[in-house]
Amino acid sequence: MLDTIRTVPTPEGIELLLKVAGPMPRARAWLLDLLVRLAILTVFGIIVGIFGKVGSGLMALAAFVLEWAYPVLFEVLRNGQTPGKRACDLRVLHEDGTPVQWRASVARNLIRAVDFLPVCYGFGLIAMLLNRDFKRLGDLAAGTIVVHVERKRVSKGMPIAEPLIPNPALNMALNLTEQRAVIDFAERRATWSTERANELASHAEAVLPAVSKYDTTDAATRVVRLANFLVGRRS
Amino acid sequence: MRLENIAIALRPRTAWEAIDLGYAMAQTWWGSLIKAWCVVYLPAALLINVLCWKYPPLAVMILWWLKPAFDRVLLHVLSGAVFGATPNLRETRAALKRLWWNNGLFAALTYARFNPARSFTLPVVQLEGVHGKLGVKRRRVLAREGSGAAIGLTVMSMFVEVTIVFSVYLLINLLSPGEPVFSFSWQSMINPEKSQAEHYLSNAINAVMISVLEPFYVAAGFAIYLNCRTAIEGWDVELQFKRMAARLASANTVNASLAQRAAAVLIFVGGLAFAAMPVEHVIAQTPAENAAANDDANDAQTPETGADDAAQRVLAAKEFGEYQKSWEIKYVGPEWGGEKKPQKKYDNKWLIAIAEFFAKSARVIAWIGGTLLVLALIYLIARHVGLQGWRLGKSRDAPEVLFGLDVRPESLPDSVPATARNLLAAGDTRGAVSLLYRGALVSLIQDGRIDIARGDTELELVGCVRQTYGSEADGDAKAGYFAALISIWQRVAYARQTLQPAEITPLIDAWVTHFNVRRVASAKPAFNGAAASGASP
After folding, report:
1. B376 and B493: one domain?
2. Higher model confidence: residue A28 or residue B290?
3. Facing residue for B163 by CB, picked from A3, A119, A134
4. Of A21, A226, B118, B466, which residue is the least packed, with the fewest Cβ within 10 Å?
5. How far out from the chain centre does Cα B497 lie?
6. What is the residue range of B373's domain?
């Protein structure tokens, strides 16, 4: 199954799932950061213009600091996210899924200069296309990875219904993936038309208890009720 | 299309994650994609370049315009690969007619060429085969989910393409000795006389780079499309349900009624057209038009170019463009003698004076403000980064009252144990313990190694003592004594228990070995037992 997820096993026996981010979302985040930095520099330039020559010196310093320190400071102190990355729900991590620290962040952002060659991240892009984790040269050197983070889901949750016990004739329990699929169905039920929902639910008919011929509730509703049972509601 | 054969993991993704999946798809099936692409694109590119031999930039433009036609080949291979049947070269070649003929290609190459969500609508047209009004409706339904990212993808892919091509130009320039191979002037792009070799080289680079990038673009668009349908139609749930049903059916005697849904059909309607491509059109017109254009350009430019060349020759001579650096010491102070200063023209001096005053004071204020800002920034950063023990100003003054107790050294009698013993003998248990406790606190404060804050609790204090003195020889004994003292004090002061003098005497005896109060003030205030302070902890 092709996916962009990398799993990192932890000593506790838990598998961390890292959704690696590719060139396009990262370019988008970089563009946003570029805008932020230009805005800061412009405002700073206007203020510092008062100081004359000292001002232009300060301006040069600010440009230097913004170029080199901005990504590092944000990545280490702000959860691996520069403002642009934050807006695009991206985050920098070590390859093992731990938060990025000074050493790695400094390394990846210094090598940014190499990635930028010959113009506007030519080498960086080629590097990203050549490896499965979409790492640019800086990431390869620093052992870091850029991942998608999940934004807090604004889900309405599943519709509440009277819980339905799975078919008693089944002599095996639903495994975790199957339970998740049933719950997923209930949570996303509202996004489908009734026809499509029933069509989907008909594939799960085997799990549902046999219906008396007077029961007119459709398959979709019964799967939703089953999901209610699975999340622990009891009548 | 059978969902069971799908080779990508189905799960709800954001559109941008889907783009990443597309890139991963292009990486995975790179071999098949590039083979199919080369079989179609390279001959076409060669042909068009040969036909436009007089005006090579036109070839680039035509090839760029025809991209949707080539993209269809990539999508054909990709859709096969995703559903578990990657077509080989022969199958792809056989499918070409079906891909190009009567399958919306005409629209794609004309009015839909500038559709910014091109890569995303292509699967709707090519794989679902819905055109016309129905197609518009279908695309609108899907577009709700993914067209934003699809437009972003197209725009950024455009930038990426330009970037990569220029990267290669620049790299060649950087690595080649002598004159730069590519001159980035606008003139060189337009003027065909400049250098044919340069044009052909740049066309070749263009073709190679587009070949590298186009599979990624098409795959990303296709992935957005798949992601939309996964969300809208619940493909992932369907797949899981089908697998669940299969597992249960194989393991159960229950007669599961597996309603096999008819798979969505990929309609590839045959036909004929491909509009014989506007290429022919171009072929018919180009040479004549080109010749005319060239003549015009030459006529207009010849005299100017001649003068330019002459000027360049002169400027290139040794006498020009040579820099010399020399220096001398020169007096720049005020003039000797009484040479008159030039009269100022302005008579509104007062206005200038006021303006100057404002400017100067603004500058001073700005300097002060700037300095303060920098200081504040340093302070904030230091606090934020968490440099511990880093404080502005001097260390805190010793507290005068702790836990409601007066802990000024002056408030203590000369000899703490002796006075405590007297109090105990007089029956004032509470006063005696209070005195010992206050004495211990004053001693700790004077020692200055424990930073006692006003809000610390007694147990925190015990912890502090243990931490600070624990490493010393008698540290454990000291901490133990202090803990015992505090527990006695809590029983007396808080629990209001009546203690036997025998419990307190050992504490009084051991006090001197652990604590010591230095006298600071000579004037000793009258000591009145446990003091009001001890009564209300």
Report:
1. no
2. A28
3. A119
4. B466
5. 64
6. 354-393
